[in-house]
Every structure is written in C-alpha cells, then in structure tokens.
From TrEMBL:
The keyword NADP applies. The active site is at Y55. Substrate binds at H117. The lineage of its organism: Bacteria, Bacillati, Bacillota, Bacilli, Bacillales. Keywords: NADP, Oxidoreductase. This is Aldo/keto reductase. It comes from Cohnella thailandensis. SUPFAM superfamilies: NAD(P)-linked oxidoreductase. InterPro entries: AKR, AKR5G, Aldo/ket_reductase_CS, NAD(P)_OxRdtase_dom_sf, NADP_OxRdtase_dom. Gene3D superfamilies: NADP-dependent oxidoreductase domain (3.20.20.100). The keyword Kinase does not apply. Belongs to the aldo/keto reductase family.
Length: 281
C-alpha cells in the first residue's frame, strides 16, 4: 500500500474511478483564497474536489477548477468533482433543477458525483429518483448519498433501480462507523469520510501523537493514512498550501496492524456534526 500515490483511485460499483484522497471545501467562503487553494491542490497532485450547494461556494470552486486546468494543462476529465443537493431541494423536479443550478454556478457540463446531502424523511426517495434520471441520461457519472445510516440505505434501496455508489459520512477515530462500513462493503457502496480530522479535535490525542512521532509524521497524516488503509475515501479540508501538501504526504509510510487496531480502539461513537437520525434542517 505504501507504493500508492495521490493519483491512486478506487473503482466504484458502476466502474467509475474515484481518487481515494481529495480536498473538501466545507465552511470555506467564496473568494480568491478558495480559488488559490484549489489551484494549489491540483498543482500538488489532488484530482478530487468536494463541494455542496449549501456551502455557497460553488462559483469560486468553478473558478478554481478553470484556473487550475489552465495552469496545469489538465483536462476537465482529469478531475473528479462532487456536489450535493440540499434538503430544501429534495423532490423529483426540485432536485433536477438543483443539479442544473449547481452546474451553472460551477461552470461545468457534468459532475462526476452527485449526492443527496441528508436523509430527510419522506423526501429522499423522490430525490433519488431524480438522481437516477440524471445518471441514466448521462448527466452525471455516479450518484450517491451522504449521512445515510444503515436503515436509510435499506429503505432507499428497496425501491431504487440504481444502488448508491458512495455514502459520504462523518468518520474519524472517535466515530469509526464499523457497522455502517461493514454494511456498505457488503453492498458494494464506497464509504467516504467527511471531517476525517474531527475538525482538529484529535491533533493532541496522546496515542495518535505517539504513533505520529514513531513515523516522523503529523497526527493528521496518521489519521488520513488510517482512512486509506481501511479503504475509506477521504476529503480533508484546508485552504493553506502547506497543510494541503501535508495532507497529501501520506504515501511514504504504512501503519502496522497493531497501530491500525490502536486507532480503531479510540472509537467513542462521538460526532462533531449532526446525528443523521436527529437533525432539524
């Protein structure tokens, strides 16, 4: 595994290749800082960018993509772009319209991956039907969900024609999501981690610091390596170039089975984000 690079991909259930490591832009405002961060990310080998309609930064993400492509000589198809439909747009026609609105803001002809952002009861099935239509019509390369628990996935798949390719969930050493990961693996659904560094809350954790010191790495690098060795796609957020570079420097070391187990054992089922069974937005 240590021979892999940031260009390494996982093959989704429908045969589409997705980079295992990407950059997330949650809580990053529109503007030049975001554009420059994405240009830096592409320059340093990142090929996957994750945004969402609710982040209200798709316009700057699109600008960053255009400038990064011009600077690098890469083509649009060399990048993997994800966005998500927000709760207020869940519904067949509303979701189709939301997709077109995201594309317009991004300045793109298609997305590589489009996700339902949250499992709003009574709404996500109609939204999924819209995603299936987009997928069947070749408007998006892969479709998936975000923040879905096992029971949400089971409910969705009862009527779905297309199985979700991705389930993007909060996942880090304090929330290892083992039951959900096992279910997704059994179903061929790729798990993707948001907030993999627990919004910085794990950077002083003693066990992680000890493992990091042993490898001459940062705690963030150890956590991202743990993700990758578990087969989890991960999208750490940063707009600072040194941190963007650091987050990608995880391919020159390998965690031992004992270290992997020690990190697994840090689980407390503790979230920094909302609980998918109890959210009110």
């Amino acid at each position: 595994m240590s021979q892999l690079t940031i260009q390494d991909t996982v093959t989704l259930i429908n045969g589409v290749s997705m980079p295992r490591l990407g950059i997330g832009v949650f809580q990053v405002e529109e503007g030049r800082d975001l554009v420059e961060a994405l240009k830096a990310a592409v320059r340093h080998g990142y090929r996957s960018i994750d945004t969402a309609a609710i982040y209200q930064n798709e316009t700057s993400v699109g600008q960053g993509i255009r400038e990064a492509l011009a600077e690098s000589g890469l083509k649009r198809e060399d990048l993997f772009i994800t966005s998500k439909v927000w709760n207020s747009d869940l519904g067949y026609e509303a979701t189709l319209a939301a997709y077109e609105a995201s594309l317009k803001r991004l300045g793109l002809d298609y997305l590589d991956l489009y996700l339902i952002h949250w499992p709003v009861q009574g709404k996500y099935k109609e939204a999924w039907r819209a995603l299936e239509t987009l997928y069947k019509n070749g408007r998006v390369l892969a479709i998936g969900v975000s923040n879905f628990q096992v029971h949400h996935l089971q409910d969705l798949m009862r009527n779905a024609e297309t199985k979700p390719a991705i389930n993007q969930v909060e996942l880090h050493p304090r929330l290892t999501q083992e039951e959900l990961r096992a279910f997704c693996k059994e179903q061929g659904i790729q798990v993707e981690a948001w907030s993999p560094l627990m919004q910085g809350q794990l950077l002083d954790q003693p066990d992680l610091k000890a493992i990091a010191e042993k490898h001459g790495k940062s705690v963030a690098q150890v956590i991202l390596r743990w993700d990758l060795q578990h087969g989890i796609v991960t999208i750490p957020k940063s707009i600072r170039e040194p941190r963007i570079v650091e987050n990608a420097s995880v391919y020159d070391f390998e965690l031992s089975p004992e270290e992997m187990k020690a990190i697994d054992a840090l689980n407390e089922n503790r979230r920094v984000g909302p609980d998918p069974d109890h959210f009110d937005f």
